[in-house]
């Protein structure tokens, strides 16, 4: 494989798979925060 | 805003998985590798990823927001947003997805049949003959495929597909759609991952990766590659279909829309990339010596564009150790992807009927019955299936454009401030998002529709049949006739639709306008 193709592959893997994993982790962290806020006597 | 149903997604994870199941369909496994190969590999991927961020994700944000705020299906949501004169648009959006459901259920049946047969082959005492040469293997596979589709078997598999999908939807959103998505979507990713790892470890796999990720910057000056990138992004992510809107109408009130939309778009394209990792290296590594892997396999459409999935993949897999197991995995992935998208389409129809006052069971029976009856022509004739695929794929471009137009009429700023950046949202969008709604989505939609119209007329120029003849498989006129009929029928029955779906309720836009006038006064 040429260096250019390796670079392009890493770019797509980072943007798509890395992006998905990152956004998923942020979403799940926010979800846990929301749940703990509700458990802490917030809105029923 | 009252909802007509108390059923809904019980968790964010369930909603995300159901949205991914909706988005990841046969288009990711079947269409994507062929379109990538036809458009020069890495160069195409660049356009495809750009349109993910400029068309698909912004449209998914609009759909999630519409469904969450209106708590209704396509017809009720668009009417509720802007008033009775917009109900026809909701009918159009819903009709595109439902007409696609009619033939998509046939395709899902094909996937089931191939999955079952590949399992049968695995346990068969007398295995089918190996692809001894470039000529025999695919030719036999093509003949077997044509023999299957020209008989009555597709009707039986159609019945199984709509029946299975209906069974899931009838159980409700939490106990049916969400539960099944939690099983099917992770299963799909695991299967694709196994297939990709096996494919990448084949001798000669790097040639496939080289083709897949080779970028030719000069190719980016060709407008065709940009158009194909946009259509693949539009059709594959499910943006503008009304399916996301439908699922969003069942989401919890304090649920986020922005991150969920980004996850749906990125997850769909991640699955496509995983499929490419499974297909390209395998095709280059396993192609017989006298066959060109790009021109003869990846770009080969075959009957009803079935070339790579139903003809070449079984042939190629047979030529490698444990190929039968990977054939099973491939068709299982295709079946799972097709079924999870089919469930979303059935749910869309059921939601509209529920909004009209029907019970879920009765609505599901009607949609499943209609799916079987109106899927029959596509099950029995590849020409009908191709025609319907052509017409309603074009309809989806209008559908996405209409979503943006509805938000523009409502007020892009008001929509963003009142609904997108509302309670429960994890990530607020700035005024820059209005540029996407007001300019980028409409411009892309209009360019696509113009390109398609000019291309249809140009392709027919000098041919035996004129573009205005509606009784033909492809062409501008057959599209305009069928899409126009849906708009005309919806427009004629607008009064009845208003009584059924709005029941005298004011639209959200009218209520907000009145409130603002009173404040000024």
What is the overall pLDDT average of chain A?
Answer: 87
Low-confidence spans of chain B:
129-135
Order of helices and strands of chain A: H
How would a crystallographer describe the biggest sheet of chain B?
A: none
The backbone outline of chain A, from C-alpha atoms, is rod-shaped
Helix content of chain A: over 70%
Measured between the Cα atoms of the first and last residue of chain A, the distance is 57 Å
The DSSP helix count of chain B reads 22
Question: β content of chain A, as a range?
Answer: under 5%
Secondary structural class of chain A: mainly alpha
- Secondary-structure content class of chain B: mainly alpha
Share of residues in helices of chain B: over 70%
Number of strands of chain A: 0
Structure summary, number of beta strands of chain B: 0
Fold topology:
The complex is a heterodimer of chains A (44) and B (521).
Chain A: H1 3-39
Chain B: H1 12-23, H2 26-38, H3 42-70, H4 74-82, H5 87-123, H6 136-149, H7 153-170, H8 173-200, H9 205-213, H10 223-237, H11 243-248, H12 258-286, H13 293-298, H14 307-318, H15 323-355, H16 360-380, H17 382-410, H18 412-420, H19 432-460, H20 476-492, H21 494-502, H22 508-520
Helix pairs in contact in B: 1-8, 1-12, 1-15, 2-10, 2-12, 3-4, 3-10, 3-12, 3-19, 4-5, 4-21, 5-7, 5-15, 5-16, 5-17, 5-20, 6-14, 7-8, 7-15, 7-16, 8-12, 8-15, 9-12, 14-15, 15-16, 16-17, 17-19, 17-20
């Amino acid at each position: 494989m040429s260096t250019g193709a390796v670079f392009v592959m890493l770019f797509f893997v980072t943007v798509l798979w890395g992006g998905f994993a990152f956004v998923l982790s942020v979403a799940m962290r926010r979800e846990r925060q929301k749940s703990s806020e509700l458990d802490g006597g917030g809105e029923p | 805003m009252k909802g007509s149903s108390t059923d809904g997604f019980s968790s964010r994870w369930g909603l995300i998985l159901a949205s991914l199941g909706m988005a990841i369909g046969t288009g990711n496994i079947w269409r994507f590798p062929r379109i990538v190969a036809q458009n020069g590999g890495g160069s195409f991927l660049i356009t495809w990823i750009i349109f993910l961020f400029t068309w698909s994700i912004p449209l998914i944000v609009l759909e999630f927001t519409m469904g969450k705020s209106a708590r209704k299906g396509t017809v009720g949501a668009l009417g509720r947003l802007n008033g009775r004169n917009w109900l026809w648009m909701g009918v159009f959006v819903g009709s595109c997805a439902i007409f696609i459901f009619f033939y998509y259920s046939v395709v899902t049946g094909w996937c089931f049949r191939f999955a079952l047969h590949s399992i049968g082959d695995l346990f068969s005492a007398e295995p089918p003959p190996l692809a001894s040469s470039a000529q025999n293997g695919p030719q036999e596979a093509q003949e077997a495929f044509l023999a299957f589709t020209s008989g009555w078997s597709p009707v039986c598999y159609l019945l199984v597909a709509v029946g299975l999908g209906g069974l899931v939807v009838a159980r409700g959103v939490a106990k049916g759609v969400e539960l099944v998505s939690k099983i099917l979507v992770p299963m799909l990713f695991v299967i694709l991952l196994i297939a990709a790892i096996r494919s990448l470890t084949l001798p000669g796999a790097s040639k496939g990766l080289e083709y897949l990720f080779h970028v030719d910057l000069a190719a980016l000056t060709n407008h065709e590659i940009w158009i194909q990138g946009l259509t693949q992004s539009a059709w594959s992510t499910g943006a503008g279909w009304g399916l996301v809107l439908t699922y969003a109408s069942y989401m919890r009130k304090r649920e986020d829309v922005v991150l969920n939309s980004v996850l749906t778009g990125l997850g769909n394209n991640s699955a496509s990339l995983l499929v490419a990792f499974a297909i390209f290296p395998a095709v280059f590594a396993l192609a017989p010596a006298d066959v060109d892997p790009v021109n003869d396999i990846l770009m080969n459409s075959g009957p009803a564009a079935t070339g790579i999935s139903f003809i070449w993949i079984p042939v190629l897999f047979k030529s490698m150790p444990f190929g039968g197991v990977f054939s099973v995995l491939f068709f299982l992935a295709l079946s799972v992807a097709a079924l999870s998208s089919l469930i979303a389409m059935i749910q869309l129809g059921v939601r509209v009927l529920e909004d009209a006052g029907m019970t879920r069971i009765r609505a599901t029976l009607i949609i499943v019955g209609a799916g079987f009856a109106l899927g029959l022509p596509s099950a029995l004739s590849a020409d009908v299936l191709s025609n319907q695929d052509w017409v309603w794929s074009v309809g989806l471009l209008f559908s996405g454009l209409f979503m943006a137009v509805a938000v523009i009429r409502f007020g892009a700023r008001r929509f963003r401030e009142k609904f997108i950046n509302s309670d429960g949202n994890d990530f607020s969008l700035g005024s820059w998002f209005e540029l996407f709604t007001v300019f980028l989505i409409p411009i892309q939609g209009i360019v696509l529709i113009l390109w398609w119209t000019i291309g249809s007329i140009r392709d027919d120029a000098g041919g035996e049949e004129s573009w205005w003849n509606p009784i033909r498989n492809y062409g501008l006129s057959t599209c305009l006739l069928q899409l126009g009929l849906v708009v005309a029928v919806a427009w004629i029955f607008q009064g009845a639709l208003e009584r059924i779906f709005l029941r005298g309720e004011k639209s959200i836009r009218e209520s907000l306008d009145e409130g603002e006038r009173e404040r000024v006064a």
